[in-house]
Amino acid sequence: MNEELEFSASYTLSKTLDDASDFAEQPQDPFNLRAENAVSRQHQQRRFVFNALWDLPIGEEHKSGKRQGSTEWLTQAFSHIELAPILTQKVADPSTP
pTM of the entire structure? Predict the structure, then answer.
């Protein structure tokens, strides 16, 4: 958008299959793993992620050449701070209980 705010978003549609989701799960028939293949516990069919990077407007007086004597140390200490929120939403799958 401009030099102080950037963002991106992504949407993932997927399906995760496996024969054991973790080490505690053991197949009923270790000689027929194909029969154990099913939807994984880590399955997230639909997922939305939004992230942003915002360069906070602290220290703008320094960029323009205007200095405020008593707050110069404060501006130098906190200039170039960036805020980076990440929001993740697992979209509910109607076929999963």
Answer: 0.55
